[in-house]
Each structure stands twice: as C-alpha cells, then as structure tokens.
Amino acid sequence: MDSRSTGVRPERAVLVGVDFGVRSRGNRAGAIAARLAAVCPDDSDVTSETETRSGSSAAGSGPAASTALDADESLAEFRELVSSAGGEVAAELMQRRPRPDPATLIGAGKVEEIAGVAASTEADLVLFDHDLSPTQLRNLEAALPCRVLDRTQLILDIFARHARTREGQLQVELAQLEYMLPRLTGRGKAMSQLGGGIGTRGPGETKLETDRRRIQARIDHLKVALESVRTVRRQQRQRREAVPVPTVALVGYTNAGKSTLFNALTGAQVLQSARMFATLDPKLRAIELPSRRKILLSDTVGFIRNLPHTLVTSFRATLEEVEQAEVLLHVRDAASTYGEEQRSQVEKVLGELEVLAKPRIEVLNKIDLLGGPDRNGADPARLGRKSPERERLEANGAVAVSALTGEGLDALLAAIDAALRSDPIIEADLRVPQQEGAVLAAIEAGMVINAREYEGNLVRLKVSGPASLLGRLRKYRERDGAEKPSVSPG
C-alpha cells in the first residue's frame, strides 16, 4: 500500500553507489553532488545531473568510461528498488576507488561525508548498492547516525512486502534468516548482546548463542515446511503429467513486463506493476496455441543483477516451474538501455538452476516504446513500417511484442508452437461417418482442419493435430494416407 494513502511518512534514505577498479580524480564532483542534495533534498534533478557529470569526468577516456556508466546505471536501478520498498531518496553519493576498504567498504573519509549528509537530510537509513560483510556493517552502523542496509537486505525487504501466499512468506522468511544468521554479531545494538564490561560478558554470550540456536531451529522448521510445499507441487505436477499438457515458463529481468504479457496471453488479471518484484508467487493458466494444442503458461518471479544466492535457494519451490518447463520464454525489455546486462544476469540465474539447455525463445517486450524517425526523418509507424531498432532486434531471431497493445502476440504463439517437442503436431487424412458427431466435434475442437470434403455419408478431412489425439482416432485414418509431421503455423 502506498505510504501517501496511509498518511505514514516514507523513510528517507541516502543511497551510496560504489565503483571499484577505477582510479579517478572526479570524486570531488560526487561530493559536490551530495552536498547539493543535502541543501536541496527535493531537487533530485540537480543531484542526478551532477552525479552523471561526475561519472563522465571520473571515467575520462578509455575502458574506464564503460565502468563508470555501469555504476551509474546500477545506482539508477537501485533507486527503483528503493521506490519499490516504499522509501524516499534524500541524497545520492557515488564512491569510486581502486578496491574495497576491508573495514568500511568505502573508506573513512567517505564515511564521514555520508554521516554529514545523513544528518543534514534527516535520513532514516543509509542504503549501500553493494553487499556488506558483518564487520563492515558493524563499523558503518557505529559511525553513521542512522540504520544501515545493504543491497541484499533491501531486496529481501521488498520480497517480504510483496509475499502474499503462505508459501511466499515462508520462502522470504527463510532467506532473511539465512542472511541474518552469520551477521548476528555485526548488527551492533540491534542484534548483538555481547557486552564489553564486568557482568555483561557471560550473559551476553549466552544470549547471542541462544539467538543463534533459535534462528537455526526456525530455519530447520521452514525448510521442512517448504519441503512439504514441494511435495504438494510434485503431486500436482504428476496429476498434470497424466494428461500431456506441456508447461511454458516466463522468465526474465524484474519489471520486463512478464505479468503484463501473462495477462495478455491468458486473459488473467494477475497484478501487473511498474514496481520491481511485484510477482513472487507463480501463476499457472492454460492457453490454446494456433495448432489447437493446450499448454500451461507459468508466470515466475523476476531476476535482478546480483540476485542474492539465498533467494535463489529459498525460492526453489517457486522456481521448480522453470525447471520443469519444456520451453522458456525469456522476456526482455526492448526499450532498456542496458538490455544486454540484464540478459546476462538472467542467464546467470538460469545457469544456477541448470536449465540453460532448455529450448528458449527470446521475447522483446515493450516495442511500443521503440520508435523515432528514420534517417530520412519519417516516422516508420505512420508509414506502416517497423522502426530501425525493432528490425535490428528481430534480425537476431527474437520475437518482438507489445504486451500492452497486443502487437506480435500471434507470432509469439506460433513460435511457442514450433518450439514444443512433446506431443508433436502431425498431419493426417481422416474419413469419419457423419453420424459420429462426438468424433467430429473432438476434431473441430482439438485440430486444425486444412480441407473438408463430403462423400456420401462420410466426411473426408485433412487435419493437423497433436499425435496423442490422432492416436485415439486411429480407426478413422485413411489406409493409404501417409502420416507426416506438420509444419508449424507461422
């Protein structure tokens, strides 16, 4: 729920981006940007523009330029994560240094600068676009005037906000506890009960060990509960497998438009939102392909850059739909400025799930956002032509669609038809008596009729349909008709 509707003030956050491996003289520009944000916290345009300039000046020329660009894009994505978590950006800072500082990640000088910015903007928390070790987290919390969270903690918080089903809540809690367990001594006064004086060492140590045992016991309980969820899913899948209905899974980067595409293909009304990780719980719906085959389409959780491994592990029950799918639809945002980076991150997670060998269709969504005049200054859309960007993307074998307008969905369904290998489509000639109304109705419902002729009381049909259905109609096949594989429509 939006914080405006509840009347609760959103938490104000200072965002800290990091870029290691770049020796830069442009860090002063980043400091100026942070100070501008502190003086004018509502003027986000000033902060963004100055940070962008500092990024380009820091990059200089050569290979460093691409590194600076990646860091700026990562910070922009991090800003979207904060918005999805219901936070409000008070200021943004970027730290570029050759290597991470073991104690604070960003160095003592930058820590002092962040402390000043956090105090002047009355920030509730400081968010790092990087994972923090327990030692770094403890040192930063001691030096800064507010709470400190890293990237993984922020993503876990978003998952906790969006988990609606019991299964989703179990998976999020398991991921949170597994992340928290090794960091008990790294959370300062919030978690650690260790003391440094007389009368505190013993009880503190006992309390800490008690906390660890309780968390470990809860983790074990959650794993048992999730295993029972997997068992139920396995039983449901076995019942589905009794009828040959293949599953096709939507995968892709978060906010690529998977849920919107799912709704467009199935007519479902699942939540579609511009916020990241709006879908956590898998959805399954049956759809019909041009060949009249039925498939189950699955909508799954989106992936993101540096997705915490604990999340991949905890969400195994959800991601089993991806593992069991016959075909994967990799949905990409065609209008994204860093689509290749998103693509590689999704493939990285698919590699962890060991499903890279599965047939995969690349779906370039949001083509309605592509456009602009061609070299001659003409608008391709008005002339009934494709934009140069779309032609380039389709030349690589991808299917271009717009889930919002419905453009390209027929071509996508045909591509799914062609990619399926189970229960293949074959062509056959049938001779069915006209009085066999139930048989003719089954043929009409489950096959594509390419030709129809009437011969006395017989109906002669040239059809293409699933091998499983034609197998049940064996006695109606033409004796001299050769059965052959069908060319998929489209």
Largest sheet: 6 strands, mixed
Instruction: Enter the CATH topology name of the largest domain.
Output: Rossmann fold
Instruction: Quickly count the helices.
Output: 18
Helix share of residues? 40-55%
Topology record:
Elements: H1 3-6, E1 12-20, H2 27-39, H3 44-59, H4 64-84, E2 88-97, H5 108-120, E3 125-128, H6 134-143, E4 147-149, H7 151-162, H8 166-180, H9 188-191, H10 201-241, E5 247-252, H11 258-266, E6 283-288, E7 294-299, H12 309-314, H13 316-324, E8 327-333, H14 339-352, E9 360-365, H15 388-395, E10 399-400, H16 409-419, E11 425-433, H17 437-446, E12 448-455, E13 458-466, H18 467-472, E14 484-485
Describe this structure in words.
- There is one protein chain.
- With 490 residues, this protein is of the alpha/beta class.
- The protein has 18 helices and 14 strands.
- It folds into 4 domains: 3-149, no CATH class; 160-234; 244-419, P-loop containing nucleotide triphosphate hydrolases (Rossmann fold), CATH 3.40.50; 425-485, 2-Layer Sandwich (Alpha-Beta Plaits).
- Strand 9, helix 15 and strand 10 form a beta-alpha-beta unit.
Which terms would index this structure?
Rossmann fold; alpha/beta; disordered N terminus; 6-stranded mixed β-sheet; 4-stranded parallel β-sheet
